[in-house]
Amino acid sequence: PILYGYFRSSCSWRVRIALALKGIAYDQVPVNLLKDGGQQSSAEFKAVNPMQQVPALKIDGITLSQSLAIIHYLEDTRPNPRLLPQDPKKRAQVRMISDHIASGIQPLQNVSVLKQMGERKMEWAQQCITFGFQALEQILQHTAGRYCVGDEVSMADLCLVPQVANAERFSVDLGPYPTITRINKALLELEAFKVSHPSRQPDTPAELRA
User: Where in this chain does the record put each GST N-terminal domain (predicted)?
Assistant: First the structure.
């Protein structure tokens, strides 16, 4: 498998965690979202993903984009360990939390949107994340065990950790979100989350390396 990604991309990070948890070895092709006006806009990368976004994963003779679609494919083809619970209610909760982050928070503060916001980008990112986290904290109080849904790591956790890192990068006060903070801390102790961390990637700039 070949993963096209960017060290700081939260969507790429979700996929790196999934690959690590499932023990899938892969090669990385870095796509710098800021350099050269954004390498995702190059003709070469457009041929990989016409949406000009990371991640993209070449695996089993196909190329997939969209992090949750990639994680679902990995789950269907390499089901151990499970990232979606077998219980239908818990499974629905995992999908709900994943979508809440992947559709409701992250896209509003990604690189392309922030570029449009100009000088207001920090304020905009903080507003989007704060609004989303207020809802997420409330949801997690009903679903969480050790992790987002019960005591098993799920796709929801793969979405949570990168989004908390984004919140920290945009100086969002995490004080009002004790459940989010507790779960994030527990997850960051797991090896798959450590090895996939943005500070430990091939394209991580020297000054940001762990």
Answer: 1-82
Task: Report the C-alpha dihedral over residues 105, 81, 180, 13, rounded to 10 degrees.
Answer: -50
| Model pTM above 0.90 | yes
**CATH number for region 2-80:** 3.40.30.10
CATH class of 88-193: mainly alpha
